[in-house]
Amino acid sequence: MKLGRILFPVCFIFCLSTALGAAEVAFPYGRFSLKLPPLENPYPGFGGYFTTISLGQKTALWNPASLAKLKLSEFSWDTFIGAGHSSGTKTSRVDEPSGSIDWSGDPASTARINYGIYFREEAAIPANAPTEAVDINSRVDSQTSGSGLNFSAAQRVNDWLVVGFSTRNPIDADADIGGIFPATGKIFADLHGFRSDDLLVKSDGVLQYTFHSGGVITTMETTSPVWIGFLSQEVSVPVQNLIELRNNLKIDAPFVGTIAASHQKFHAGLNYIPISASGSINNDVRAVVPESATDQYLYVPNFDPNDPNAGGNWMVDPDLYGTSAGYSKKQITLPSGELVANAKYRGFYQGNTSRFDLGMMYDVNEWITVGLMLENLTGSKVTLQGSGLSAYYSYRQVNTAEAETLFQPGSSSNWSPISNNWFTSYEAGATKLMLEEEKTISLPKRLRYGVAFKRPFLIALDWEQNHSPITLKLSDNPQDVVISDLNFLHLGIESQLFSMPVIIRSGLTWLFKPSVSGLTADQQKGVNDAFSMLGGLPVKFDLGTTFNMWDYKVDGNCGISALSLINAMQFDSTSLNLGKTVFAGLAVARDPWTIAYQAEFDPLSTAAAYGVKTKDAGERKFEMSDVRLVQTIGLTYRF
């Protein structure tokens, strides 16, 4: 194995890989922010997205035709009153890598390179210190807050026409990570058994050299081991890794405009929803040799390799080959304070579209209603146009031209291992790093139809067909995973509890087995097993109770849901309620007034709170104190 293929390439490239992959070790600071519109739950405890339930503008997204049943006017206002927040320091223990490489090419040789990558500043590493487990402290700050307040209003214009309007604040997510991560590469060279061209160091430390002069080949060797400072040498290459990752995603559907009309028992309505989306990607990782880095030195035998007489004098004089006096210093110049590697992944995307919903309802009689909802009637798509796109990594190449004769007598007294020649690549392996100039995202297109019976108690039943497949890219799958044929059954029940002034409600959403392609055999078996017993899985459950107390109605409700995850994968901004996985609420109503409070589980801040906890005795337990909530209060006036 050639020396030039091992010595500095090992040290330098390993440091660069640490620089470009330092995110996998630790970050000194991370800030994660999620801004959400006020939370919505039009019919607490009953479930959602029923085509036959009418609660004014609140249920316009369920079915715009429901607005046609508004008596006269409706006004509502919702805002955040509390948000989830977590901050703390997470300590990660990271093992500094080290190893050993045989560089002689002779299996019987003991010549080796021992290397270590230290996640510390060079000045903090004691002489001859081994690598060790290093504690790295990372600061994490997570915040979920409101992006504004929601307001809605609806008004009956005449006997057959109603118009409504509601504002909807954006979903705004930020993820920022930054800091400086040190990495110092050290190489410890043991030359016992080393061979390079005419130079041989035997395993006992005796140096042998073959001279070529005038056609005569002469081999000489020392009578005892050479100077230990030549046999064991050390080189350090410190690198500071500057990490700046700033990413933002904003999805905005600023308002919903609704118009609904009635003719006898038939009602129809239309929603108009403008939608815009933008994304900012600004990721930069730089590797810099710090200004404090000093040039390194190697020792080489100080004789002329073309002069056998001078070499012979050196070979027989222990005051030369056995001490530092017989060796010259080879200076290894490091580019102190200079950039040696860089990776960028940045760009900006923006696009907009409009969504139209068409809904219809028909009252068969006083206690039976049927409904139909065509969500995203025109199959709208958001086309995100990219600008300022850049994705590449580059580094200064390692100069191996002189490395082959690095320890040869009479070789150059100066070597710059890090050249000024830059190598730039736009792909990692076979994967191109380029950002797409244009990205088209199809909004979910759904068909819902159902029926509601009001006697002997209220029961609503809806069937939903989701015509938009979900495409997932999984690292362990050779092809994209596509989930299609998503069908849901929505069931809601409301009934008075015997003759008591108590009303109970319950809702259930059931997902039937979808079609999934692109899975491995084991993954497909897991999907089949999950749906094998009942042919489906519950994805949302609601429970609510209303107490009639004199002139007041007091309502309590709770529920769990996985629908927000499905909505997120389908880029559904109007139905996307990221906090609505576990939720509860309380409402008080009197005459036309209703005031409602909602508290919902905040997965982002809760995960951050749990992540920064200190482990006791090697164990970390989830506790109620880790839970973070987002809270909303709303006021509705309907008459």
How is the secondary structure organized here?
Blueprint: H1 7-20, E1 29-36, E2 73-82, E3 85-95, E4 98-102, E5 112-118, E6 133-146, E7 150-156, E8 161-167, E9 171-190, E10 195-196, E11 199-201, E12 207-213, E13 216-221, H2 228-231, E14 232-252, E15 255-263, E16 266-288, E17 296-301, H3 308-316, H4 318-321, E18 327-332, E19 339-363, E20 368-375, E21 381-398, E22 414-415, E23 418-425, E24 427-428, E25 431-432, E26 438-442, E27 446-453, E28 458-466, E29 470-472, E30 481-484, E31 486-496, E32 502-512, E33 515-517, H5 521-531, E34 536-549, E35 552-561, H6 563-569, E36 582-590, E37 593-601, H7 603-611, E38 629-638
Parallel strand pairs: 1-6, 18-22
Antiparallel strand pairs: 1-9, 2-7, 2-38, 3-6, 4-5, 5-9, 7-8, 8-15, 9-14, 10-11, 11-12, 12-13, 14-16, 15-16, 16-19, 17-18, 19-20, 19-21, 20-27, 21-23, 21-26, 24-25, 27-28, 28-31, 29-30, 30-33, 31-32, 32-34, 34-35, 35-36, 36-37, 37-38
